[in-house]
Amino acid sequence: MQLVDQFLRKINYLRVSITDRCDLRCIYCMKEKMNFLPKNEVLSLEEIERLCNNFIELGVEKIRLTGGEPLVRKDILHLIENLNKKKSFTNLKEITLTTNGSLLKKFAKDLKNNGVNRINISLDTIIKEKYKEITRFGNLDNVFEGIEEAIKNKIKVKINTVVFKNFNEDQITNLINWANKKLLDLTFIEVMPMSDTDMPRHMQFVSLDKIFKELNNIYNFDKSDYQTSGPSNYYTSEKLNIKIGFITPLSNNFCSTCNRVRVSSTGKLYMCLGQNEFVDFREILRNDRSDDYIKEKIRFALSVKPKRHDFII
Ligand code: SAM
Ligand code: SF4
To answer: Which numbered ligand comes closest to the C-alpha of 16?
Structure first.
């Protein structure tokens, strides 16, 4: 079975936010004082699993768990264990995670044992003071220990770094050298305009086109045909042993190859990262509707998936 949208894009990738909570407060993502949702507004693990099952039956092959911070959700391993069992008899090929890595040391072994072979870790700086500044109170050593534990358990780690003017723009080559020593692929991401943060005015958007040109002078990149199911363009260099990725939602729109939709922790299915239209699955799940009805609503959502996002810098 294949799930396609109105523009015939094959949709095989589902991102599921399993919690709105987080153990950090990155200044570009959250306010310092957050009012998190009451528990009953967030989907239960059973509801998440049922929704995932319907997507899998319709053709989804890859599920990425995210948040908030996915590893703060109690019983996340139980959900992963149940999804992992489906790999042997359904379309599902991969379960993966995007995490800040701060709790990874505790979870790495169990994640691996439950079929998680790759994870993305978000890390914007490898300078302790700067890490504390951007996460408000995070401890960089926890992330380093988490990365080591993941590597020890043979989980492939990719680092994602959001680039900001006046914060980490000057540390890009340091990050590349560090990742290269550890043999971790590294992807740079443009900061996206999000509401509900109190991001300092001095930290601004940087176009990755500019960063790419500067790095290309140093590394003389070759375009790689390596593709994950994500929107990153990858490059290799004779000077490096890793791939460097660039995700550029603003300076280079990648919507024509979009293969994904995302579900929020409250069960809203968003068809596009940069648009606000959603279909609310929480009430559908809680009103004891049939799986056929859920699938019909998923198909409807895809029939109205927009052609492109409309972020404005
Ligand atoms: N807590 C996990 C983490 O940090 O990896 C998962 C959730 S977090 C919202 C997922 C990703 O979104 C992280 O890589 C984070 O850096 C990125 N992110 C958050 N706010 C962003 C923004 N305004 N622009 C670009 N990326 C952002
Ligand atoms: Fe938490 Fe991730 Fe947002 Fe940082 S980016 S506050 S770690 S959810």
So the answer is: 1
Q: Look at ligand 2, atom 4, and give the residue with the nearest C-alpha.
A: 26
C-beta 187 within 6 A of ligand 1: no
Read off the pLDDT of residues 225-281 as tens digits, 9 standing for 90 and up. 876 656 678 999 999 999 999 987 665 555 666 777 899 999 999 877 666 778 999
Q: How far is the CA of 122 from the centre of ligand 1 (A)?
A: 7
Asked if 206 and 251 touch (Cβ cutoff 8 Å), the reply is: no
The model's pLDDT over 92-136, given as tens digits with 9 standing for 90+, comes to 999 999 999 999 999 999 999 999 999 999 999 999 999 999 999
Residue 135 near ligand 1, beta carbon < 6 Å: no
Q: What's the pTM?
A: 0.93
Residue nearest to atom 20 of ligand 1 (CA): 29
Q: Whose CA is nearest to atom 19 of ligand 1?
A: 29
* CA nearest ligand 1 atom 5, residue: 99
Cα(246)–Cα(204) distance, integer angstroms: 18
The finding on whether 99 has its CB within 6 A of some atom of ligand 1 is yes
Ligand nearest to the CA of 69: 1
What is the number of other CB atoms lying within 10 angstroms of the CB of residue 92?
23
The answer to whether 290 and 42 have CB atoms below 8 angstroms apart is no
